[in-house]
Amino acid sequence: MHITVAGLGVSGSSAARALAGLGAQVTVVDGGDGDKQRAAAAELEEWAATGGDSGGAGRRAGITVRLGDGDTLPEGTDLVVTSPGWKPDSPLFAAAAAAGVDVVGDVEIAWRLRGPDAAAWLGVTGTNGKTTTVRMLASILEAEGLHTMAVGNIGTPIIDVVLGQGKDGARPYDVLAVELSSYQLHWAPSLRAHSAAVLNLAPDHLDWHGSMQAYAADKGRIYEGNTVACVYNVADKATEELVRAADVEEGCRAIGFTLGTPGPSQLGVVEGLLVDRAFVENRQKQAQELAEVSDIAPGSGTPAPHNIANALAAAALARAFGVRPAAVRDGLRAFHPDAHRIQHIADVDGVTYIDDSKATNTHATEASLAAYEHIVWIAGGLAKGATFDELVQKSAARLRGVVLIGADRALIREALARHAPEVPVVDLDRTDTGAMSQAVREATRLAEPGDTVLLAPACASMDMFVNYNKRGDAFADAVRELTARDH
């Protein structure tokens, strides 16, 4: 086949190698023509010229790269494989449609290439919490003794894992914990998971999807054809509606998770315990203890409510796959959150400093703010079209003070003036990276013993930092400066 791969990033390069290694003639197109793209193109072409993974022997891979033109469909294309970020209305895809050529994503290709004894897929999507939930799920599956891996949108291209199954005598995977973005789901029409969860739904990426309805519909694709369980959030009715709309296999069950007492076919919390009333013999009358709330990332402090919800979703998917209760407990105990996700940095003079730089939208920030009683909030950055009135309204009673940074801080300041006029606000009129040190000093000045200084920006970072990781690192460094000075 002649296959066109759209995009020269991680997933595009991975797909190009995989498809060329299977004998396809691959053309990679990318609209960019900078140093980064040229370096990636040279690496791919060198790989192909030396015979790819075959080390020069056997079937030789064929890859060409076309930079500076991502709009024109190469002549003779039989299939287009797109990277997740390319918008559905891209001219390349319009040209493909006019030529009768299908457009799919790398997840779809991975699904089609699975062997007859392929590992089951447990899928996770949602506006927020996907990565944490998938990593919790993988930890639980490992505690059960299963050979597994967290793959997909989490950073490991799933096509590489699928094609590497059992390669060179490696033990095949029993099950995969698969993080899926709305972009990936949009381009994966054939995907049929063993079980899947939609954690939550809030407006995000609407410039790509075109509407909230289209965004929700793409998220809901993860439930299509599920064979055992569709896991939904009891507190987010939109996720349950997606289950109701899904066309699933006969016998597939709807399983809810809740921070309250669970009903039949739900997992929830009772007196500090995670309990299961779904995968028990008599769910009307029985409940199975799975773990204590304190087992969720022990040593990192009291888990935030949204991380308890993530743990319940992970537990539901694991239980759907037949995992024992003890493995749920052991897996949650072994799990350690990634940096910049509700990360405890230090306690200084009775004030707790928390880095949640990963909270790049209002939905994630609302969950972060709900985890603490008295907060000095550091916020701001690139708003990406977001509005902040609802967030401020819901969180105003918790705010001791606010320090604003970043390009779009005025939008948050105006929402605070409307809905929390009594809360002190420090507006830092600077967007250099050094602003974070000043922000932490100002937040410390506003804080009282027992308060939490919380970096949960509700905005993207690129106005000031390379990414949210660098923003979180700057916050942590500034807090450590405090401790060094004071002690």
Q: What best-fitting shape do the alpha-carbon axes yield? A: globular
Give a short account of the largest sheet.
9 strands, mixed
Strand order of the largest sheet: 7-8-6-9-10-11-12-13-14
Beginning-to-end CA distance, first to last residue: 66 Å
CA radius of gyration is 24 Å
Give the low-confidence spans. Answer: 54-60
Kindly state the percentage of residues in helix.
25-40%
Characterization of the model:
This protein is α/β, with parallel strands linked by helices. A nine-stranded mixed β-sheet has the order 7-8-6-9-10-11-12-13-14, sandwiched between helices. It has helices spanning 10-21, 35-49, 91-98, 106-112, 130-143, 158-163, 182-186, 206-209, 212-220, 237-245, 305-320, 325-334, 362-369, 389-395, 409-419, 435-446, 468-486, and strands at residues 2-6, 25-30, 62-67, 79-82, 102-105, 120-125, 148-152, 175-179, 195-198, 229-233, 253-257, 266-270, 273-276, 288-292, 343-348, 351-355, 375-379, 399-404, 425-427, 452-455.
Q: What does this entry show, briefly?
A:
By secondary structure, this protein is an alpha/beta fold. 35% of the residues lie in helices and 20% in strands. It has helices spanning 10-21, 35-49, 91-98, 106-112, 130-143, 158-163, 182-186, 206-209, 212-220, 237-245, 305-320, 325-334, 362-369, 389-395, 409-419, 435-446, 468-486, and strands at 2-6, 25-30, 62-67, 79-82, 102-105, 120-125, 148-152, 175-179, 195-198, 229-233, 253-257, 266-270, 273-276, 288-292, 343-348, 351-355, 375-379, 399-404, 425-427, 452-455.
